Amino acid sequence: MSVRYPRPLRPGDRVGVTSPSSGVSKELSARLQVAIREVEDRGYEVVVGQCMGASRHISASAADRAAELMSMLTDPTIRAVVPPWGGETAIDLIPLLDWDRLRDAEPTWFVGFSDISTLITPLTLLTGTATVHGNNLMYTPYRVPEGLLTWLDIVAAPPGHRFTQTPPGRHRSGGFDDFAVFPDIREYTLNAEGTWTRLDGSGDVDAEGRLIGGCIETMCDLAGTPYLDASAFARDESPDGLLVYVEAGEDNAFTICRNLHGMKLAGLFDHANAILVGRTNAPDRRTLTQHEAVLDALGSLNVPIVADLECGHVPPYMPIVNGALGRIVHTSTRSELTQTLA
Predict the structure, then answer these.
(1) Beta partners for 277?
(2) Distance set, CA 36 to CA 45, 83, 209 (Å)
(3) SS in 3 state form for 185-242?
(4) Which of 150, 200, 283, 309 could form a disulfide with 305 if both were Cys (CB 3.0 to 4.6 A apart)?
(5) pLDDT tens for residues 205-244?
(6) What helix, strand, coil percent values describe the chain, rounded to 5?
(7) Strands 335-340 and 325-330, bridge-based pairing
(8) What's residue 240's pLDDT?
C-alpha cells in the first residue's frame, strides 16, 4: 500500500454533501445554502444526499448513513465528499463500511474534522487514501486569514504540490457564531492573540514525517483497534517516522489526559518524530491545565511537542492532509507547517 492522492478537482466536478454523524436543522438551512453556494462559486456541482436530517443527534440510521457515504466515496463522478460538520457517534459507521471496496475504489477526497476524524483517519490508515482534516462545509464561507488555506485550495492542488501554512497570530477566544441569526456571516471574530507553543522544553523544532491524527475525544475509542493502527502505517508508508497531531474539542483536562494516556498505550505515538497539538478552549481543571494534560501523558516520549496549532475546534482552521509528507518548524522567529502531496 502507498499513499493515494485523489485527482485534483476541476471546474465541473461534483462534490457530495452528506452527514455521517449530525445533520442540519431547519433553522440552519439558510447557512447550509450559503455554504453550498461557496462551493458552487468555485465551479463545482454540489450533490446533497438524503442523510441530512436533524431530528436526533444523528442524521439517519447507521445503515443509511453508511450506505450513502459508501455510495459517494465510490461514485467516480463525485470527486470530494464534505459533511456539514461533525457530531457525536460516527463510530457506529465503522463496522458497516466496506473497507476493502474503499481500498479498491478510485480515491475521493474526504474532508472534515471533529467527529469526522472517526472516519477520515481510519480511511487513510486502512486504505492509504489521503484525507483532509479541515474546516467542514458550514464553516467554508469564512474568509481565511493570511497564512492559512481552506480545504477548497487543497483538493484542487496538483500531485506533488507543496504548501506551507503559518499561524495568523489571532484566534477566537470562545464561542461560535449563531448561524440561525447570521447565516451569511463570512468574517471570523478573532479577538485573541497567540501563536504556537513548545510544551516539552525550549529550543528549535524541525521535524518531518507523514501526518496522521485528529480529534482526541473521537479517536480515543478506536485506540487499540485495527482502525487506528498508526504503527502499521508508519512501517509501510513512513519508516522514518510520523508527525502525529491531536486536538481536544470540549472535554476537560482530566478526560483528555486519560484519553492521551490510553492512545499512547495503544501505540498511536510510537513512531512520532513530533507531536502537534491543536489550540483548544476546552476547560482546564484546578490542578491540571490542558497543556499539562498533554505533557503528563506524552512528555515521556521525549519528542518535540508543539501546541496551539490552528488544527482544532478554535477558529480559524488550518487544514492538515492525513498521509501527506509534513515538516514542522518552530523557532523564536519562525513557525510553519509544510505539507507535500507525495
Answers:
(1) 246
(2) 9, 11, 34
(3) CCCCCCCEECCCEECCCCCCEEEEEEEEEEEHHHHHHHCCCHHHCHHHHHHHHCCCCE
(4) 200
(5) 999 999 999 999 999 999 999 999 999 999 999 999 999 9
(6) 30, 25, 45
(7) antiparallel
(8) 95
Count CA atoms within 13 Å of residue 43 on its CB side: 7
Per-residue pLDDT tens for 251-282?
999 999 999 999 999 999 999 999 999 999 99
Mean pLDDT of 140-166: 97
Contacts of 341 by beta carbon, 8 Å cutoff, 6+ apart: 5, 130, 157, 158, 159, 160, 161, 162, 321, 324
Amino acid of residue 216? I
Q: Quick count: other Cβ atoms within 10 Å of Cβ 1? A: 13
- CA-wise closest residue to 148 among 2, 315, 29, 327: 315
C-alpha cell at 28: 440552519
The pairing of beta strand 305-309 with beta strand 272-278: parallel
The tens digit of pLDDT for each residue in 28-62 reads: 999 999 999 999 999 999 999 999 999 999 999 99
Cα–Cα distance, 338 to 147 (Å, whole number):
12
Beta bridge partners of 80: 15, 109
C-alpha cell recorded at residue 77:
463522478
